[in-house]
Amino acid sequence: MKGVWFGAGKLNGTCLISTVATELSLTDRLPTYCAITSYTVFPDDITVDPYQSHRITTSFSYTLFPGTLAVQSITTTWPVVSTAQNGSGVADGTTQYFDLYGNPTWRKDERGFLVRDQFDVATGAQTQHIADVNTALTTDPPAGWTTPPNGGLHLITDTIIDTLGRPLFVMAPWITIDIGGVATLVRPTQMFIYLDSALENWVGQGYPSSGSAASPCREPARRIGSPGTANNDQQRVDVGGPAGTPLDDRPGADAPPMMQQY
Question: Is residue 153 pLDDT above 80, yes or no?
Fold first, then answer.
């Protein structure tokens, strides 16, 4: 066996030869890796289309990080959908960029709108997601990528994680709501507490508000992952109070110390 094939097609006309040994039965040979460059579906059987001339093909192209076999970007070109079938009549596509660890970092959709993601290297957990990116507010968009017309809302979701990559706070994009007749900027937020010694997880939700000393994030936490009783199914997790106030009334003495007012 000369190598391992996991796709049909070749990258830039040739297969890629790995420069590192892998755990194969023939360790003296280098495995061969080929990337899929097209995927074709034949929608009609041979009784309708004897020569299989009707083909629906999706194409893929790649760039690699220099000196490696790590994929830097994948561009997917979808089959053309005719205007008669409510399509655009052109081959739309998407492009996805990755970091050296395989995490998807940038994406351009079929209409040119951009998405940006960031990850914690140690745990692989996502720490930020930006939908409809305004490239004027970023420092590392791929070359030539700019915000399309009517785009650029720059909707940020931040995730604070613990050392295991579990979410502690998931903070959605800022929105404006009516509180007592006053337009108020708030950020919908979920909070998580992990009581590992009790095999319990707790989750609460609320909304830190902008421009006030108190953050009214005062929804009760729900216990998940462990049976509860009528008396302890819920316990309040209050992250309100003046800025910088520790989270003192968290359920259980072994709640993570990272859980605090932000």
Answer: yes
In the chain, what are the domain boundaries? 1-36, 43-161, 163-262
Task: Provide the pLDDT confidence category of residue 209 given band limits of 50, 70 and 90.
Answer: low
Q: How far is the CA of 43 from the CAs of 19, 52, 81, in angstroms?
A: 40, 9, 14
What are 97-106's pLDDT values in tens digits?
A: 999 999 999 9
CB under 8 Å to 169, separation ≥6 — which residues?
Answer: 158, 159, 160, 189, 190, 191, 192, 262
Strand partners, 73: 63, 97
Question: In this structure, what is the dihedral angle of CA atoms 251, 166, 127, 157, given to the nearest 10 degrees?
Answer: -50
Q: What is the pTM of this model?
A: 0.70
| Residue 252 φ/ψ, nearest 5 degrees | 100, 140
Of 35-39, 114-118, 119-123, the least confident:
35-39
* Residue 130, token pair as written in the block: 């930006």
Rounded distance between C-alpha atoms, residue 120 and residue 157, angstroms:
15
Of 253, 258, 255, 239, the residue nearest 162 (C-alpha): 258
Tokens of 186: 């708030």
**Residue 176 identity (one-letter amino acid):** T
Return all residues near 39 (Cβ < 8 A) that are at least 6 apart. 57, 58, 59, 60
